[in-house]
Amino acid sequence: MYILAPSVLAADFGKLAEDTAKAREGGASYLHLDVMDGAFVPSISFGMPVIASLRGYTDLVFDVHMMVEDPGRYVESIRAAGADIITVHQEACTHLDRVIGQIKASGAKAGVALNPATPVSTLECVLDQVDMVLVMSVNPGFGGQKFIPYTLDKVRALRQYFDRKGLSTDIQVDGGVNRDTIRPLIEAGANVLVAGSAVFGGDVKANVETFMNIFKEYER
Ligand SMILES: O=C(CO)[C@@H](O)[C@H](O)COP(=O)(O)O
Ligand SMILES: [Co+2]
């Protein structure tokens, strides 16, 4: 029911395949891949070649978070590189409906992300079409930032909406997720939790297991 998506942004890039294998051993089923273009967000991370290379080393679900302007330009190539879920930012898409259609046509699951200060109401017209909504709980661009508490209200509003509609749409939260912030997030309705520094800082397998044990508290 609950899914941990370790964000490789905090991994040792010289040992990506090794760190990914450790996350899998601990029980993770997703791998969160942060693509940054230096325009939508200040930093530049990695793109298709790194994702395609890593695809050869793991069967984890590749959950690609596109922090790029006009992400529709890259949907097919990110899918070809191995993405299973492609999440685009509402703020980066002039034609959001079209990009969601493009992602689905590629065969990937479609996610839409919101920056902390972007209201849930901006997704009103597309909420019934997407497989996942990503609530950013830090301003995107960097790992290791502090969780922004007001984003919990957005998670609650989304879960209420999906429950009312009888939809099992995933709600993902990304940014500052750790053993202190994860319980309020689950209680608010999040079910896909991204964690970068809390997973890849230190013993990766043990860190993932800690999250898995917290999930068990809610799955009983
Ligand atoms: O998308 C992003 C940052 O923009 C994230 O996926 C970070 O990589 C999460 O890192 P932590 O906050 O968990 O360290
Ligand atoms: Co991310």
What does this structure look like?
- The chain has 220 residues and is an alpha/beta fold.
- It has one domain: TIM Barrel (Alpha-Beta Barrel), CATH 3.20.20.
- The protein is 36% helix and 20% strand.
- It has eight helices and eight strands, in the order E-H-E-H-E-H-E-H-E-E-H-E-H-E-H-H.
- It has an eight-stranded parallel β-sheet.
- It starts with a strand and ends with a helix.
- The structure holds 5-O-phosphono-D-xylulose and cobalt (II) ion (CO).
- Cobalt (II) ion binds next to strand 2.
Which CATH-level-2 architecture? Alpha-Beta Barrel
**What distance separates the N and C termini?**
11 Å
Tell me the CATH superfamily: Aldolase class I
Structural class computed from helices and strand pairing? alpha/beta
Q: How does the overall form come out from the CA principal axes?
A: globular
Ligands in the structure? 5-O-phosphono-D-xylulose, cobalt (II) ion
Give the H and E element order: EHEHEHEHEEHEHEHH
Catalytic activity: D-ribulose 5-phosphate = D-xylulose 5-phosphate
Pathway: Carbohydrate degradation
EC number: 5.1.3.1
Binding site for a divalent metal cation: 32, 34, 65, 174
